[in-house]
């Protein structure tokens, strides 16, 4: 009836996209607290979608579809959603638009570049190191720094946040090695995500 693939190998990716869309709606309504929470949820989904997909028996077409879907999901979850949040925070000067453009270009350049790398390698073999900062890290960095808004002067907070956005954009395409989390590290990230989510929900209430 429909084109596309809808089996369990991609369901977590779809959940992450759904969370991002809700987050963008909330950011537009200036409900930044829960928009940030949606970003964290999208990050958790992205953390596990590849792992779950590799556990599924997939055809070659399903593997290729998963690669493309994951990259498109990353653009929505970790570029479009964060920028919606930035605007919701009031970072809407002309120079912010320049930074957001650089942020988006860096994100899609990274994703496009590594799509090529994945196509040329064993698609079921996880990598040991990332080159540059994965775009998924947006789901941890921006929520953590958002918590500073409760203890800093608003102008200072917005300045720091603007600098962080620019630094993250640079790190997306910087040729530096970052070790990929494995095994117990996934559990640690989940615990951090839960703690961060609790902080987002309750701090400043």
TrEMBL record:
An example Gene Ontology CC term for this record: membrane
Source organism, top-level taxon: Bacteria
Keywords: Membrane, Transmembrane, Transmembrane helix
Ranges that cross the membrane: 5-26, 32-50, 71-91, 97-116, 128-150, 156-176, 183-203
Database matches in Gene3D superfamilies: 1.20.120.1760
InterPro entries: CDP-OH_P_trans, CDP-OH_PTrfase_TM_dom
GO molecular function: phosphotransferase activity, for other substituted phosphate groups
GO annotation, biological process: phospholipid biosynthetic process
The name this protein goes by in its record: Phosphatidylserine synthase
Species the sequence originates in: Clostridium acetobutylicum (strain ATCC 824 / DSM 792 / JCM 1419 / IAM 19013 / LMG 5710 / NBRC 13948 / NRRL B-527 / VKM B-1787 / 2291 / W)
Origin organism lineage: Bacteria, Bacillati, Bacillota, Clostridia, Eubacteriales
């Amino acid at each position: 009836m429909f084109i596309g693939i809808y089996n369990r190998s991609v369901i977590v990716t779809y959940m992450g996209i759904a969370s991002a869309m809700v987050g963008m709606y909330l950011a537009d309504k200036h409900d930044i607290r829960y928009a940030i929470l949606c970003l964290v949820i999208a990050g958790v989904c992205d953390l596990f979608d590849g792992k779950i997909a590799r556990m599924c028996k997939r055809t070659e077409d399903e593997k290729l579809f998963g690669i493309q879907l994951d990259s498109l999901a990353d653009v929505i979850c970790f570029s479009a959603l964060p920028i919606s949040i930035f605007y919701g925070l009031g970072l809407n000067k002309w120079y912010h638009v320049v930074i957001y453009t650089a942020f988006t270009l860096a994100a899609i350049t990274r994703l496009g570049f590594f799509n090529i790398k994945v196509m040329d390698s064993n698609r079921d073999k996880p990598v040991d190191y990332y080159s540059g900062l994965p775009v998924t890290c947006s789901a941890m960095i921006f929520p953590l720094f958002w918590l500073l808004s409760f203890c800093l002067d608003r102008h200072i907070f917005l300045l720091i946040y603007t600098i962080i956005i620019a630094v993250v954009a640079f790190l997306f395409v910087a040729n530096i090695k970052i070790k990929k989390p494995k095994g117990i590290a996934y559990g640690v990230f989940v615990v951090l995500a839960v703690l961060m989510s609790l902080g987002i929900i309750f701090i400043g209430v």
